[in-house]
Amino acid sequence: MIQFEGVTKIYRVGRKEVRALDGVDLTIDDGELVAIIGPSGAGKSTLMHILGCLDVPTSGRYLLDGIDVSRLSGNRLAKIRSRKIGFVFQLSNLRSFNLVSRTSAVRNVELPLIYAGVRDRRNPALLLEQVGLGERQKHMPNELSGCQQQRVAIARALINDPAILLADEPTGDLDEASGAEILTLLGGLSGASRTVVIITHNEDVARCAKRVVRMHDGRIVSDQTQPNGSAISV
Question: Among residues 192, 214, 209, which one has the least CA distance to residue 26?
Fold first, then answer.
């Protein structure tokens, strides 16, 4: 499904060039659960942005289902994002997983359909039940715990039935037990019809994945399969 061929991303800051990605080759098959791990500045966020069609490479190719999306227009990339890719973001002091604060859980899940002008594609209430929040559909985000808010964000990411689910530090700022719940949920969402990619700097989080790709200075330095991956222990 996903193939990077010599992907390089260069940012220019004044007269200085910063190579956020430096000739990355990477293939991720359908249904894999993959953790991409590295310290701050390793290039993992840039890789995620390109993988999620939020950005394009400076050079190299990104093939998605055999189609080179590296040079597509912004409108075509937006269509791919809306149809194929779901995003799960990290909690921060400034945002609660990008949920709309004055909107109920079920309406938050439904928002991508509303923005895309799509109706009746998937039932947001059923998705909330799938992530264990069937009884909290009418609750506002401030009436939910951090773990519950993240579950709403995951349900929202699934509303368009994406083939790829990208989770950016999905357990950040959650306590240990809540983090384990979220990783278990994400692990259960990977399979024949959905690929899950977790971006993290946390070794404990990476242990949940069946495959771990390590990055440093914009390059992949190791790519290993873990026999005990998806055995949650955080």
Answer: 214
